[in-house]
């Protein structure tokens, strides 16, 4: 995926500005450099003057080591897939994680019980669900998880991040009404330039909409809710 500097910077600035990331912040870098979450670990926090805490070689999959680093280095920003956040909570038990003030989870379904488990250990932390696609410059949509409704089957996908736009369209490229499922499309500053040296695949997933501008077809199914956010329903190719 070929991403412009403008697209990546738009995403990094949105996160940093929302949470006031600055020189006092520390992020634990758990993502491989081939995984797009690492872009925020490397460039987002450093751009704000913060620091990166790297796990020891050979300990990257050890939750006990993560917990030690969070407490020793007073890590303030957690950025990972939900499964790793769950492993941290399991490892911590009842041990507080009071240094955490921002928890970013993306890349997979978030278990509906996990946000409350995190807040029990880090009561001051903003717990965020983020989503989108690498083709949308890491993240394009977010939702700050407050009270979890017992009736929710899943955590809300959310609303578009600054500089980005999210649409739910039918097969004719028309907006789906509230509650009607369609394919999620990404527009705005984060849309990638395309796939490197793959014009056929680029033409298949990226297109110029007559009213909405250049869009990326995510292949994700979703629907708008009456509350004004998108509910993620899964993939259209499974």
Automatic annotation (TrEMBL):
Molecular function as annotated in GO: ligase activity; phosphopantetheine binding
Transmembrane segment boundaries: none
SUPFAM superfamilies in the record: Acetyl-CoA synthetase-like
GO CC annotations on file: cytoplasm
InterPro entries linked: AMP-dep_synth/lig_dom (IPR000873), ANL_N_sf (IPR042099)
Keyword Translocase: no
Ligase in keyword set: yes
Domain of life according to the entry: Bacteria
Domain called AMP-dependent synthetase/ligase: residue spans: 1-196
Record keywords: Ligase
Record protein name field: Non-ribosomal peptide synthetase
Taxonomic path: Bacteria, Bacillati, Actinomycetota, Actinomycetes, Kitasatosporales
